[in-house]
DNA sequence: CCTCCCTATCGGAGAAGCCGATGGCATGAT
DNA sequence: ATCATGCCATCGGCTTCTCCGATAGGGAGG
């Protein structure tokens, strides 16, 4: 059996059709049809239900799916190992962690702080849902997330804790009020990220406590843009402390003096079992992350 | 890449040559040569050092070896699972365990005592060393051994305990002596198994305590033959109690009344990680073995 | 130096892979 | 009802791969 057939099958299932898979793989449609048929002849079982509108894996095809992924994964790992390359560690992270925290960790890791076992690291930035999906599919080896809910039974470790803080520019009216009350906050404008972002979820929790009358100034997908808007006095922003630590230190932003609603964040690492040669570097990386919590990582 | 190439490579390494591998696989010699060359072109690295006397894997080939085995294993597991067959559980055991204990356990397992997850079970009988080798190579999924030494860091569980006992026919002169002393034993003949067998090792330990003057009556590879020789009054035998429990119960053999040197035996299960669908049946089987200790399994 | 055994290479026959084109089939719009 | 659309299977062809038998090279040992 050839791995091409597994790749073809996988592409068909992922794209939902033979034609789409053929285009994705750079084959003619008839070739992919042939490949799947060869695979079915080899296995002795049909793996696809063909319809005129697309293609759906049969029950046997669904059983095949995880094996196909594992085999292709193992094939790639084998090629890396045999050709003497360093193992590949595919990690995923939320944007904020990838922006503000991972770069320093990975720099230290590359400089040998990860121990003698090093690896080539790729970082995929995505939402929490997609990260977990790709981890379960085997497309990622490990993910770093915040406050990840249940539904994962693989190995994991808490990397550190942080909290969500309400920040504004020092010149913002809210910054002058001590102590700040919820009523003051209600009258202000908020900078929030798009729906689905984890900080947006924090905001929504926070907002529910404060009440529905919160004014929303802007919705944006970039934490960095949001932060700069806050620096420019455009409004208050609810952000994890580690992502604005530099601005707090330099005085570009101030933390508002509000007791209510500080949301605690747990930074967690989750990874797959059976990583092969990438297991040792990952272990080193996770230990490194635990030692590498930023100064603001204070909230136990 | 085709699994045929991996099979060819594996056969070459195991047989020590391309010609021998070709014969084993049913190919022409030139075909296997081609297959290995194709594999090397695909991987970009030579995997075999060819000499005029045979073939040895290169460094890259040695790295390839475990991956080739794992890939072929996974391929087989995939075929089983996809075609809807029950998972295959390849277990190995020492001859005594396979003869006297495993049959009842496996019968109960097949009759559903292993829980809802069942599997097709193959049993390989071999020496402890070979069993561990095949377990590490992935040719076996689990092994049952006695007093297995260190050098294994995978998962394991103690199944039960037994002891080595010195037995003779009731008519044997030693059986009439109470209490028995080491001097009495020294003057008797012993039935022992071949070198390398674990009971032979027990005997050697025992013998060292007793002294070098022990007379050895016979060396045989079959525990059953040895047991019958003892029943026929041919001498004393040092055997695990569970393997002679039936003869002790029926009175065909008696346990000698000697305090010194009873060797304790630990029956241990060891298995591989990453068993896939065979993991649940194996867990059930191990739990079953722990509940299934024979009556003689008394020595804690 | 000769023999033996091992492996690489070559040429040819057969099989398999891939492609473009064609046709069947279900769906959804007109 | 009819037509258009998008999907997949099939077919004939070309190319590539696979496998084989035969042959040649090369080191080990007598």
Automatic annotation (TrEMBL), chains A, B:
Belongs to the LysR transcriptional regulatory family. The keyword Protein biosynthesis does not apply. Keywords: DNA-binding, Transcription, Transcription regulation. InterPro entries: LysR_HTH_N (IPR000847), LysR_subst-bd (IPR005119), WH-like_DNA-bd_sf (IPR036388), WH_DNA-bd_sf (IPR036390). Residues 1-58 form the HTH lysR-type domain. Gene3D superfamilies: Periplasmic binding protein-like II, Winged helix-like DNA-binding domain superfamily/Winged helix DNA-binding domain. It comes from the Bacteria. This is LysR family transcriptional regulator.
